[in-house]
Design goal:
The longest helix is centred in the N-terminal third of the chain and has 21 residues, at 97-117. Strands 14-15-16-13-12-18-19 form a 7-stranded mixed beta sheet, with helices on both faces. A 6-stranded mixed beta sheet has the order 9-8-7-10-11-21, sandwiched between helices. It is globular, with a radius of gyration of 23 Å. With 479 residues, the protein is an alpha/beta fold. The protein has 13 helices and 22 strands. It folds into 2 domains: 8-252 and 454-475, Aldehyde Dehydrogenase, Chain A, domain 1 (3-Layer(aba) Sandwich), CATH 3.40.605.10; 256-443, Aldehyde Dehydrogenase, Chain A, domain 2 (3-Layer(aba) Sandwich). Strand 7, helix 5 (156-168) and strand 8 form a beta-alpha-beta unit. Its EC number is 1.2.1.16, 1.2.1.20, 1.2.1.79. Belongs to the aldehyde dehydrogenase family. The active site is at 251.
């Protein structure tokens, strides 16, 4: 931990908070304090804003190839430091080292992807239909951005936002989650090493998010907000963006349906369930939340899933052989336990897990519930834990209606061997992404995002850079 930066990163320099405040970073596996980092206040936010605003004009004029090569160097450095970054992430967030290494690779790929997109920003030209004017279209960076990232994928959510902003020519203030600031600070050090000019990226770690972010959003100099987090916080931030009409992209909560039809290959479906539920201990917005399984196969599916979940080893993420690390904090674990308790009180059967272990750390066992009452709280709450709640259905129309009966619409999973049904159901689901016979949809080359209250805009893919660019139309008379 001694080599990891713990100060704010403003204008290319590592600095303490103006008032000297610090905040602890805890190890969720032990409850012990790993270190203290600077705890920024409003004055620090203003300094970061000034640095980003001052750097914007020159950075926007920087050649696309230069921006591309900075991102490419950052991609290579991230991969070179896979083990170091993975251990850092596991220490502050809890996921097993194998998953943390996977996230490092995933995170690095956003830098590589947007290094390639940086040199493909184009416009257009043509004569307008009335023949009087030529139309020249150019694309330019939207301007200084505020990037707010969550704790569950602390490295990848940073690169998924920083990558397109750098490629587009935007300067940034990054505010990471207070639980996991170290990954973001390490990322800032890597980008500085890769040649990113001073002031282009500023990192403000804080436990005082409202005091730091609201003045930035209402002040008029920040022109773009990219936020990943809960829907409740997203609504609050959207309101704060209204005064200055700040452009927004929001990746918010999910309540993913996982649908298993009677003709599904159950081996494939259980494999998919393990991915969709247990990636990141279930602490993912893409996690399967509601398992709808056809009545004819529900007992067999539940038995197989419980067997697989029961073999997973729970423990500190740094320990060899561990499959499931701790949840992020005591509050997160208490929420999961309360949701399970409510479901059991309403008649759910526990096939495996379901009991909070004693001892230090924020651990919760992989849990499978069946015969879940549709009125249970975990049916309309993002669980964010290793709990699979199984419900039964009888026909296609019924399950589509129930799957769509939620204000969220991020991702859905469909398991069936029938091509017509697969396409038909996927098209009827009110979600931004569908995993068809797979439990993993995230990929830097694909657009990530949802509909309804799961967010606005898309991250990743060819369209990911669009969120950081504006069009300018130039009319030139035809003479």
């Amino acid at each position: 931990m001694t080599d990891t930066p713990t100060q704010l990163f403003i204008g290319g320099a590592w600095v303490d908070a103006a008032d000297g405040a610090t905040m602890p970073v805890d190890d969720p596996a032990t409850g012990e304090i790993l270190c203290h980092v600077a705890d920024a206040g409003p004055k620090d936010a203003r300094l970061a804003e000034e640095a980003a605003v001052q750097a914007q004009e020159e950075w926007a004029r920087t050649a696309p190839r230069v921006r591309s090569e900075i991102l490419r160097r950052a991609y290579e450095i991230v991969l070179e430091r896979t083990d170091e970054l993975a251990h850092l992430m596991t220490s502050e967030m809890g996921k097993p080292l194998a998953e943390a290494r996977g996230e490092v690779a995933y995170a690095a790929e956003f830098f590589r992807w947007f290094s390639e997109e940086a040199v493909r920003i184009d416009g257009g030209a043509g004569v307008l239909p009335d023949g009087r004017n030529r139309m020249l279209l150019s694309r330019r960076p939207v301007g200084p951005c505020l990037l707010i990232t969550p704790w569950n994928f602390p490295l990848a959510m940073g690169t998924r936002k920083i990558g397109p902003a750098v490629a587009a020519g935007c300067t940034m203030i990054l505010k990471p989650a207070p639980q996991t600031p170290l990954s973001s600070l390490a990322l800032a050090a890597i980008l500085k090493e890769a040649g990113l000019p001073d002031g282009v990226l500023n990192v403000v770690t804080t436990s005082r998010a409202g005091e730091v972010c609201e003045p930035l959003l209402r002040g008029g100099r920040i022109r773009k907000l990219s936020f990943t987090g809960s829907t409740d916080v997203g609504r609050l931030l959207l309101a704060q963006c209204a005064d200055a009409v700040v452009r927004t992209s929001m990746e918010l909560g999910g309540n993913a349906p996982f649908i298993v039809f009677d003709d599904a290959d159950l081996d494939v479906a259980v494999d998919g369930a393990m991915l969709a539920k247990m990636r990141n201990m279930g602490e993912a917005c893409t996690a399967a939340n509601r398992f709808f399984v056809h009545r004819s196969v529900v007992e067999e599916f539940g038995r197989r899933l419980a067997e697989r979940m029961g073999t997973l080893v729970v423990g500190p993420g740094t320990r060899d052989g561990v499959d499931v690390g701790p949840l992020i904090d005591a509050a997160g674990r208490a929420k999961v336990a309360e949701l399970v308790g409510d479901a059991v009180e309403r008649g759910a059967r526990v096939l495996v897990g379901g009991r909070t272990p004693e001892g230090p750390g924020c651990f919760y066992p992989p849990t499978v519930l069946t015969d879940v009452d549709p009125g249970s709280r975990l049916m309309d709450t993002e669980i964010f834990g290793p709990v699979a709640a199984i419900l039964t259905f009888d026909d296609e129309d019924e399950v589509v209606r129930r799957a769509n009966d939620t204000p969220w619409g991020l991702v859905g999973y469909v398991f069936t061997e029938g091509l017509d049904r697969a396409l038909r159901v996927s098209e009827r689901l009110e979600v931004g992404m569908v995993g068809l016979n797979t439990g993993l949809v995230s990929n830097p080359a694909a657009p990530f995002g949802g509909v309804k209250q799961s967010g606005l805009g898309r991250e990743g893919g060819r369209v990911g850079i669009d969120e950081f660019l504006e069009y300018q139309y130039l009319a030139v008379p035809v003479r």
